């Protein structure tokens, strides 16, 4: 027969074991909770990487990854291209040594981030980012001492720039993002490109908190246009599918006597370029080719520059 003392001892033993088991159970719950949290974080990272598969990070995945090819269609499968913060430093070599996050934290920095959407459904070159557009933008930023002389008034109001055949807006938006206090950019293209161009403009204006000075509107070359722009930009606009004579006339119509014209041209289109140069030579005092200053080393791209609009061309 079990005595009362033995029963009490048994009860005390069972209670202690229960408390021990409860502690082990709670520890196990905490371990499972921590494991669940780790799995949730891993799933979130996977989800984010899936999203990022649709985005090319231009600097890390292309510029600093060897640039092994320069095919114009190399990036067309990406929906977005993230260019990070656009550096206004005119020393391209220094740019490679400036981490993006450090630039964000610098006191008084003026550069803005740039994200460009591409659209394959447009079935036109204008829906993609081309090397010439990026090269031209970096070159124009490098040449800032040349065109900043055209700033207006004693307080240095922004230089008025226009990009012809802007497409995605890569060139104009990149220059305006790198130097938002120095530039007011007008982005132009055919009506069919305007929805994409407007989306890229609005997206980057939103991320810039209102500091990006730019507008977009349709413009067809060869029509009766007038303007008074300080700088005219165009990347891959001298091509076989476009009329080089109409392009030259439009450029002249948008100029004043001190306007600077910077175009990125594909050196393989020698015959078309020669026709365009002949037309520009009749409208401007000085035309020349310059070696581009850019971290993108595409050997087929050069910079065409025109200055000194002739009075007879007005």
Describe the structure.
The protein is an alpha/beta fold. The protein folds into 2 domains: 53 residues; 260 residues, Vaccinia Virus protein VP39 (Rossmann fold, 3-Layer(aba) Sandwich). The protein is built from 10 helices and 10 strands. The strands form 2 sheets. Strands 6-5-4-7-8-10-9 form a 7-stranded mixed β-sheet, with helices on both faces. It has a 3-stranded mixed β-sheet with strand order 1-2-3. The radius of gyration is 29 Å and the shape is globular. This is EEF1A lysine methyltransferase 3. Keywords: Methyltransferase, Transferase. Pfam families: Methyltransf_16 (PF10294). It comes from Seminavis robusta.
What is the straight-line distance between the termini? 123 Å
The level 1 CATH classification of the largest domain is Alpha Beta
Cα-atom radius of gyration: 29 Å
Q: What kind of oligomer do you see? A: single chain
Main sheet strand line-up: 6-5-4-7-8-10-9
